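Sample entry (238 residues):
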Amino acid sequence: AMRRLRLLTWDVKDTLLRMRQPVGKSYAAEARAHGVRVQPEALSRSFREVYGAQSRRFPNYGRGQGLSSQQWWVDVVKQTFRLSGVHEDGVLTLMAENLYRDFCSARNWEVLPGAGETLSQCCQRGFHMGVVSNFDKRLENILSQCNLRHHFEFVLTSEDAGFAKPDPRIFEKALRLGGVPPEQAAHVGDDYTRDYGAARAVGMHSFLLRAAGHSEEPEVPPEHVLPTLSHLLALIEK
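Predicted structure, serialized as tokens:
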């Protein structure tokens, strides 16, 4: 059945791209530039708490509640600093706007090992390719800056779609964009629920990128597991 695959869809964060350094380090460096000292570890902890609360209160960047994703993120950054003890409004606004802009560039993102080569090989083999990511609208630009955009016929973010993985509708929209039925498509991602399980639920094939030893999740057939991206083509062509 794998031989009939025509479309490959890709998750981005921690599948193709990763942050160059922990969030707290990026935030602390921005603060230092304004003469504000905050511990990176404290900022990382604050960020996780604030990001979680904001995601529950305003899912998918507040798209259904009248927020722009930029407002959503600026709010997250400001609250992260406040929770870490920084309260000066002028500086908070400046830092939040700078960080929103910096996370839109290759400054804060790097391509995972093997990603560029694997994407090139998949294109050479003639697969249609698209992105399906729980990301805001900066993703297109980030992929361009990291020199990956040209591999993809479409970039579908949860902000654009109005639905976030694991909602089946974002995968259904990707299948429409790719013009193939689900059994001729496979999704590649690193999250068991949002990537692997969600794609399978709409009838797509799926591959789970995960380092050895991540077995607290439900069993995944070994032929669906990618220890690294470089293993993908061998599995598809079996």
